[in-house]
Specification:
292 residues, 5 helices
């Protein structure tokens, strides 16, 4: 039993107006109705995929993992409870707020709120239209994208996402940052997307290093890079291609300080034939970090 996708992501941010502009005008996301103190965005036919709630953290606020239906939902909730992990938000009012049929929440070993749900609201009668002209985002069974989380307890965090939620190892990258700092970055999938989650075993000022959006064409990436530069948004990694998922992408700083990766062309996992391998470099070319 496994979660089937990362269905939605929630952030806590100090500057909601900046996020409203950044999400729509720079990333090309479609604004969705939201309550006071929150900004929501659509990336496809789902009623929303990204939420930014007012808060001082400027960091990840919650992750929403989808399962196919009530049987999988009940089975996964039972497994979470059997592991002595407390669950909450079982009431219908909260599920209605999230726009899903049913939902429960729990916490990962470092306190991040994780929501498991089924039955999201889709709005085919109101087609997704990017205000910045993005042709399409790659979602569907692959979910909204991926997140990279820092953790100071890799073993318990890995156990939670693998043994409880059912994610599976895709590969690893050995990362070296000078003679005194190196670690293994671990990548996990739950559907054909190469990775839905990556774990970095390091202390960091923010739990979230970056989240990723995948567009349908290389031109979508090029136009997004132009919008970033025109808006004066800092580019934190230049255009490049990753070694493991082969995605062509760039990174930019969000209004909350963590990063967003905007990419195209990632390869997918064929579960029956996939081999776990390791890499000694994150990129085959590009993705240069600024010196200052």
């Amino acid at each position: 039993m496994s979660v089937s996708s990362l269905g939605y992501i929630g952030f806590k941010a100090k500057d909601l107006p900046a996020w409203s502009r950044f999400g729509a005008e720079v990333l090309g996301l479609m604004k969705a109705p939201a309550r006071e103190g929150e900004v929501r965005f659509r990336v496809d036919e789902q009623s929303w995929r990204i939420s930014v709630e007012e808060g001082p953290e400027d960091d990840i606020g919650f992750l929403g993992f989808e399962v196919p239906g009530p049987q999988a939902f009940n089975a996964l909730r039972d497994r979470v409870r059997a592991a002595d992990i407390e669950t909450g938000n079982d009431d219908r009012d909260f599920a209605t707020k999230r726009g899903v049929t049913d939902l429960f929440s729990c916490r990962d070993p470092q306190g991040l709120r994780v929501e498991v749900y089924y039955g999201p609201t889709e709005q085919h009668e109101v087609p997704f239209v990017s205000p910045a002209g993005v042709s399409r985002f790659v979602t569907g069974e692959e979910g909204v994208g991926h997140v990279v989380l820092a953790t100071t307890d890799i073993e318990s965090t890995r156990r939670f996402y693998v043994e409880i939620l059912g994610l599976r190892l895709s590969d690893t990258i050995f990362m070296r940052f000078g003679p005194d700092m190196a670690f293994e970055l671990e990548f996990y999938h739950c559907n054909p997307r190469h990775h839905t989650l990556a774990l970095a075993p390091i202390p960091a000022p923010k739990r979230l290093h970056h989240f990723m959006l995948q567009a349908a064409t290389i031109d979508d990436v090029g136009f997004a890079l132009q919008r970033v530069e025109t808006a004066g948004v800092p580019v934190t990694a230049t255009l490049g291609r990753h070694t493991n998922d082969h995605m062509v992408s760039f990174y930019a700083r969000t209004p909350s300080g963590f990063e967003v990766e905007f990419g195209y062309g990632a390869r997918t996992v064929e579960e029956a034939t996939w081999r776990v391998v390791r890499h000694d470099a994150p990129s085959t070319w590009g993705h240069k970090r600024p010196m200052h």
